[in-house]
Amino acid sequence: MNKLELNLSLLLDSFISRIPTLLLALATLLIGFWLIKFLIRFLNNHLNKGKIDISLSNFLISILKVILYILLLVTVASTLGIETTSFVAILGAAGLAVGLALQGSLSNFAGGVLILLFKPFKVGHYISSSNNVEGTVLKIDILYTTLKAKNGTTLYAPNGPLANAVINNVSDNENRMLEYSIGISYNANIDTARKVILGVLTNDPLIFKDPAPVVLVASLGDNAVNLTIRSWSANASFWPAYHRNFQLIKEALDQNNIGIPYPQREIHIIPAGKGLPG
Length: 278
Known about the structure:
The protein has 278 residues and is α+β, with helices and mostly antiparallel strands. The protein folds into 3 domains: 12-115, Helix Hairpins (Orthogonal Bundle), CATH 1.10.287.1260; 125-169, Roll (SH3 type barrels); 175-256, Alpha-Beta Plaits, CATH 3.30.70.100. The chain is built from 7 helices and 8 strands, in the order H-H-H-H-E-E-E-E-H-E-E-H-E-E-H. It has a 5-stranded antiparallel β-sheet with strand order 4-3-2-1-5. Helix 6 (190-202) crosses helix 7. The protein is elongated and about 130 Å long. Residues 63-103 form the Mechanosensitive ion channel transmembrane helices 2/3 domain.
């Protein structure tokens, strides 16, 4: 037997001896693929029936799928006798490097998870936040929230800062309070002014009768008696009722000769050569 035949014989013997290991690795791979598909299908059906947002559930399932496939490949490699310690160490180092490089994005991801889980606002809600984000929510993604501002521009707010801000959700309640601050002249009768203003509000079908509108004296200013006016309407009717009643209140006060003063200054001109009056 020459050298070539000897090498071929050794190679064949080695292959035959490894057939059980190869079959075990192949079986592990096929069963692993089937189990991962079954688990992903089960989670999809379960999460779609729950209250978890579809964007969050799809993202979490995608992450889980990647992790499971990596674990399956490491397991198959280990079954074949391939050293996986270095491979795992490389994956860990790569994960750490990516984590440091994407620190801001990971913060936005965590914020997106919190927003989608706890739902401080939903698509269609009008919100404002303590970090100067304001508008109607168009879309909530895992990293950014898209809003339409009052002036029609589109805002893309990172979810990290948004999740940590104080959120004022204007659309979360069905009803909303309208509040005005109007000053009347010191010569005007407060009770008369109150009746005039309440007459305007009670005649508006958009203003609730319960709770009833109120007119309160807020302060005695330098130039006017400042009144605070409060009433309630449906959230959807807030702005039409607010602007219309502002105008109607002004017109009703004018018709009843109740003035709304403005700051005035008196100037005394002292002739030359005369001192200040004693």
